[in-house]
């Protein structure tokens, strides 16, 4: 096998050449800002219109926000993180049974991003699972650790409810019916990426994930509380997203940028690595049903503003996304109307 997992249990002493970025593409960690904070929104706040204003502001200017009092049980998030850690601690021979670099597989353990397409690799291993409907996908999930299927199933359900709640808030904040986005996205698929970024000998020369936007509709990320690494691009400056206790990081994906007719932004973000500690993050992705037409709402194209993007479906978009490198131009640019 050409491409191997990084999480072998033995720390790497040097960064291999095929992980080393040319000087012009390195993360420049000393220039990352942490003086500004990504908005934190309390979902249990009493003033609903204030929540909507916060959502609108965050989605317009950051494409990201964190949520607190989100309704997902603390015990469950802790169990989810624990079982994910245990998974990556399994012997490498055991993990290699699930290894694949074919992005069309519905369950696979892989490394970097798109190992067959890219020239420089990324300092990440990841387990990627299709999750919904549960009864279709749970049978193919790992049965080691033994509690994996049960814990992940419970986690998926609670996160899905949170995602729907946030889509309602996003709809309302755009002046649409509460159910607008949920209806437009139809019976949403749900995927999960369990990202494991091992400690890295040269964090200045490589990435866990280079700058990218998420191709799906909405992403719900559970970050490691003790090891930071997520950064977002705001006004040309990379900004560190400080982990908050008991919070999820939410971001707008490409599909919601299209469905908001470009008002809400699917923002560039990246994961950097560090020399001391491995970092774990768990990303849940809500995705449009294959049959859903991604098309700007009438309400947002009335009053003289025309549709920024042509109509498309998610399968069409996803094919384009995976045929590219992660760090090229925004994939949505390829779907712009020519006017
Ligand atoms: C992703 C992602 C960020 C992180 O999986 O798409 O952006 O902090 N992850 O792991
Ligand atoms: Ni992402």
UniProtKB/TrEMBL annotation:
<dbReference type="GO" id="GO:0009751">
    <property type="term" value="P:response to salicylic acid"/>
</dbReference>
<dbReference type="InterPro" id="IPR026992">
    <property type="entry name" value="DIOX_N"/>
</dbReference>
<feature type="compositionally biased region" description="Polar residues">
    <location>
        <begin position="21"/>
        <end position="30"/>
    </location>
</feature>
<dbReference type="Pfam" id="PF03171">
    <property type="entry name" value="2OG-FeII_Oxy"/>
</dbReference>
<dbReference type="InterPro" id="IPR027443">
    <property type="entry name" value="IPNS-like_sf"/>
</dbReference>
<dbReference type="Pfam" id="PF14226">
    <property type="entry name" value="DIOX_N"/>
</dbReference>
<dbReference type="InterPro" id="IPR044861">
    <property type="entry name" value="IPNS-like_FE2OG_OXY"/>
</dbReference>
<keyword id="KW-0223">Dioxygenase</keyword>
<dbReference type="GO" id="GO:0009620">
    <property type="term" value="P:response to fungus"/>
</dbReference>
<dbReference type="GO" id="GO:0002229">
    <property type="term" value="P:defense response to oomycetes"/>
</dbReference>
<comment type="similarity">
    <text>Belongs to the iron/ascorbate-dependent oxidoreductase family.</text>
</comment>
<dbReference type="InterPro" id="IPR050295">
    <property type="entry name" value="Plant_2OG-oxidoreductases"/>
</dbReference>
<dbReference type="GO" id="GO:0010150">
    <property type="term" value="P:leaf senescence"/>
</dbReference>
<feature type="region of interest" description="Disordered">
    <location>
        <begin position="1"/>
        <end position="30"/>
    </location>
</feature>
<keyword id="KW-0560">Oxidoreductase</keyword>
<dbReference type="GO" id="GO:0034785">
    <property type="term" value="F:salicylate 5-hydroxylase (NADH) activity"/>
</dbReference>
<feature type="domain" description="Fe2OG dioxygenase">
    <location>
        <begin position="188"/>
        <end position="288"/>
    </location>
</feature>
<protein>
    <recommendedName>
        <fullName>Fe2OG dioxygenase domain-containing protein</fullName>
    </recommendedName>
</protein>
<dbReference type="GO" id="GO:0046872">
    <property type="term" value="F:metal ion binding"/>
</dbReference>
<dbReference type="GO" id="GO:0042742">
    <property type="term" value="P:defense response to bacterium"/>
</dbReference>
<dbReference type="InterPro" id="IPR005123">
    <property type="entry name" value="Oxoglu/Fe-dep_dioxygenase_dom"/>
</dbReference>
<keyword id="KW-0408">Iron</keyword>
<dbReference type="GO" id="GO:0033759">
    <property type="term" value="F:flavone synthase activity"/>
</dbReference>
<keyword id="KW-0479">Metal-binding</keyword>
